[in-house]
């Protein structure tokens, strides 16, 4: 729970008493490689804060092709947000790529935290805003750049992920073939 507190205190300061109450809303779950936290069609019960490990959020289209929406590493939040906030069944998957742990928070818990602690409402607003900005930047990059530019930006933003994620997943995330990624990777060295 120390990592949870550190993460929260990157944005807001909290007392020991406040954290004692805040942590009661979270459960910690250890996750193994290839384990799913969210599976398409299931109820989306939790939003997850990554404490350790690497995860991918993706959906599978009608032809069976996988589309990676997000990778998540330490201190990143993830879930199928459409299902989570709408309280509908998942249309996406969340899969663990590297053993780790997550802090799980229900929508009801999130709402109660925001009501009880105005500071936590501010925390969630900042996290949601930052996530929205990152998603918008990703969409703009996908729509207006070359595969090489997308690879360079991914390498710049997430140098630690490049060496920990299978190349096929990086290729899917960037919207390029595995062969194109191999060329980009060779040229980038």
The CATH class of the domain at 2-106 turns out to be: Mainly Beta
Strand content: 15-25%
Give the termini separation: 39 Å
CATH domain topology of the domain at 2-106: Jelly Rolls
Order of helices and strands: HHEEEEEHEHHHHHH
- Average pLDDT number: 93
CATH homolog superfamily of the domain at 2-106:
Jelly Rolls
Structural class: alpha+beta
Largest sheet: 6 strands, antiparallel
Low confidence ranges: none
Count every beta strand, where a strand is a DSSP E run of 2 or more residues.
6
Quickly give the CATH architecture of the domain at 2-106: Sandwich
Q: Return Rg in Å.
A: 17 Å
Helical segment count = 9
**What is the helical fraction, as a range of percent?**
40-55%
Shape: globular
Describe the structure.
The chain has a domain at 2-106: Jelly Rolls. Helix content is 48%, strand content 24%. The protein has helices at residues 2-8, 16-22, 81-86, 107-116, 118-144, 147-157, 159-162, 167-174, 178-188; strands at 27-31, 36-38, 46-60, 66-72, 77-78, 93-106. Strands 1, 2, 3, 4, 5 and 6 form a six-stranded antiparallel beta sheet that branches. Strand 3 (46-60) and strand 4 (66-72) form a beta hairpin. It is globular.
Supply database-style keywords.
cNMP-bd_dom_sf; globular; RmlC-like_jellyroll; 24% strand; alpha+beta; cNMP-bd_dom; Jelly Rolls; 6-stranded antiparallel β-sheet; 48% helix; 189 residues; Crp/Fnr family transcriptional regulator
Task: Briefly say what this structure is.
The protein is α+β, with helices and mostly antiparallel strands and 189 residues long. It is built from nine helices and six strands, in the order ααβββββαβαααααα. Strand 3 and strand 4 (66-72) form a beta hairpin.
């Amino acid at each position: 729970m120390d990592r949870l507190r550190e993460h929260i205190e990157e944005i807001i300061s909290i007392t020991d008493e406040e954290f004692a109450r805040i942590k009661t809303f979270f459960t910690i779950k250890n996750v193994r490689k290839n384990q799913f936290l969210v599976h398409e069609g299931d109820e989306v019960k939790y939003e997850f804060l990554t404490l350790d490990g690497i995860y991918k959020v993706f959906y599978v289209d009608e032809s069976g092709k996988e589309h990676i929406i997000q990778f998540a590493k330490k201190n990143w939040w993830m879930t199928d947000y459409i299902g989570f906030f709408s309280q509908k069944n998942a249309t996406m998957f969340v899969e663990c790529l590297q053993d780790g742990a997550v802090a799980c928070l229900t929508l009801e818990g999130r709402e109660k935290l925001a009501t009880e602690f105005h500071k936590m409402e501010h925390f969630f607003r900042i996290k949601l805003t930052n996530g929205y900005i990152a998603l918008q930047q990703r969409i703009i990059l996908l729509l207006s750049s070359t595969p090489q530019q997308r690879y360079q930006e991914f390498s710049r933003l997430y140098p630690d992920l490049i060496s920990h994620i299978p190349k096929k997943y990086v290729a899917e995330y960037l919207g390029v073939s595995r062969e194109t990624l191999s060329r980009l990777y060779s040229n980038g060295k």
